[in-house]
Amino acid sequence: MIRGYAKSVARNTAIMMIAQIITWASSFVLMMFLPKYLGSSSYGELYLAISIATMFQVIIEFGGQYQITKEISRSRETAPHILVNSALTRIFLWSISIVLMLEFCRVANYAWPVPLLVVILGTSKLWESINSLLRNCYQGFELMEYPSIGSVVERTFLMVAAIIVLLAGSGQVMIAAIMAVSTLLNFMVSASFSKKIIHFIPKINFRKARLLLKEGIPYFMWSIFATIYYRVDVIMLSLMTAYSVVGWYGAAYKLFDVLMFFPSIFSQALFPVLSRITETTKEGLTSAVQKSLDIILFVGIPIAVLLFLFAQHITSFLFGLHDYQNSIIIMKIFSVGLLLVYADFVLGSTVLALDKQKFWSVIAGIAVVVNIALNYFLIPFYQKSTGNGGIGAAIATLVTELFVMCSAIFMLKGRALGKINFDLIIKEALGGSIMAGTIILMRGIPIHWVIQALIGSLVYLVILFLLYAYEENLEIFSIDYAAVIKNYFYAILYRGEAET
Q1: 3-state SS class at 413
Q2: Strand partners, 417
Q3: Tens of pLDDT, residues 214-260
Q4: Which residue has the higher pLDDT, 418 or 248?
Q5: Could you tell me the pLDDT band of residue 412, with boundaries at 50, 70 and 90?
Q6: How far is CA 48 from CA 220, 247, 388, 407, 500, in A?
Q7: Model confidence over 136-169: pLDDT tens digits?
Q8: Under 8 Å between Cβ of 153 and 131
Q9: Exposure string (b/e) for 7-43, b if CB count within 10 Å is 16 or more?
Q10: Whether 81 contacts 233, CB under 8 Å
């Protein structure tokens, strides 16, 4: 039995790893084509429309990405009822949101074609929200392989179709339409596997639907605050600067978003397990959280170092320096904030697993106020002094993320965080410093920057190996949640958002 289980995990892991290569390739190819072929202004319009639609998507989902996963992970027999009743509420909330999106565009006085882009992407949120609901159900069952297949179909179609229309001379409107179709394909594929977890379709229960909405309010507050604070910078940039500035910021932020793949998928795999561990022993939860943070830092430090030191080369390779020279400094600021975001993914998942969503929603609300206030002053300041208001928006994001991390640590201290292992953190930081120093020393040598990055990464691994910094992290596999390991490989393909 154990051998059969291991064989199944190995087979599915191999399939998902192959698919991961496909999705990664599609993401980077799109980053190379879209900004270059659309130009900073048109790309800024598209990115603005994506941000607006994403903000309203939070209203449609109403915190279900946390509530539904937690409920199903603890009581899987409730999945059919939760799926049907939640679908009803999402359709209702979508109908309200699409009207609000258009009204927002009218009030903001956005020039054409931004309203059209918002209509196209906003319409797609109907099936995206239902697909997200299915994904939450799969996550509750710890069966992330099925939505991962849909994600592969989506990303592959999006990459191929987008490149074809870009080479044919089409603009941002056609790209938005392709994005909408690609998410529809994702939904159709994910729905085709729904019988794996849903064996019957119950009748709609309006009382339970209202109850789901009521219980989802704390999760919704956290989600809407978090999404607003992640997207409000784009909205404020569009109102205070030109679309080209939004394009510079959007290009850097897109790479920043892609680099969050590891903590995103890791937290997806970790969250349902943490939800179960909270009902057992405090020691198990503390160990799981601390080991997860160790791994997050181990991965995040070299990525942050590479992004900071090679920001110019990466910008030139992906976007071109002609239109996106101003994205370099923004990318460097984001590299500093990358470690904060990595840690916040684990800490935030832990807070919600402990049923502290009310506390977390309050912190998110304060974070929104902080972020908006910082953007209000920093965007015009840097726009006037440097001609690049995106610098101010990036700094606002960095400061806000630091506030969120400190708040989470304060709340979890004594609950899920024991004595912080500073010895391991110091070793990882030392490894990152030596890695950075090695790369800087190589700058006088005629070696391609990609080779320099590989050598620096190898130095980091060797230093950490010599310092035994990663030895303790291997103990995470002895904790009673093998599902995290399996689901990591399954979830590794599914980022949730179908952004370009």
Answers
A1: strand
A2: 413
A3: 666 666 666 666 667 677 888 899 889 888 999 899 888 888 877 87
A4: 248
A5: confident
A6: 23, 9, 17, 30, 12
A7: 788 777 677 778 788 888 888 998 899 999 988 8
A8: no
A9: eeeeebbebbeebbebbeebbeebbebbbbbbbbebb
A10: no
Q: Which of 6-10, 302-306, 361-365: highest mean pLDDT? A: 302-306
Cis, peptide link before residue 113, omega less than 30° from 0? yes
Determine phi and psi for 141, rounding to 5 degrees. Answer: -85, -5
413 - beta bridge partners?
Answer: 417
- DSSP 8-state secondary structure symbol assigned to residue 178: H
Regarding predicted confidence, which is higher, 14 or 174? Answer: 174
In 3D space, the residue among 138, 119, 132 whose CA is nearest the CA of residue 187 turns out to be: 132
Residue 213 or residue 7, greater confidence: 213
Residue from 428, 12, 486 nearest 270 by CA: 486
Report yes or no: 290 and 421 within 8 Å, Cβ to Cβ: yes
DSSP state at residue 21: H
Distance in angstroms (rounded) separating the CA atoms of residues 316 and 399: 27
Residue labelled with tokens 């198990």: 284
Strand, coil or helix: what is 388? coil
- Amino acid at position 267, single letter: S
Residue type (1 letter), 83? L
SS3 194: helix
- Give the pLDDT confidence score for residue 416 in this predicted structure: 55
Find tokens 């009207």 and name the residue: 99
pTM: 0.69
Can you tell me which residue has the tokens 């020393």? 441
* Tokens 């990303």, residue located: 155
Question: Tokens 């809407």, residue?
Answer: 224
What distance in Å separates the CA atoms of residue 449 and residue 453, rounded to the nearest whole number? 6
Q: Are 176 and 49 in contact (CB under 8 A)?
A: yes
What is the DSSP annotation of 446-481? ---HHHHHHHHHHHHHHHHHHTTTTTGGGGGGGSS-
- The structure tokens listed for 102 are 């258009």
Q: How far apart are CA 380 and CA 78, in angstroms?
A: 51
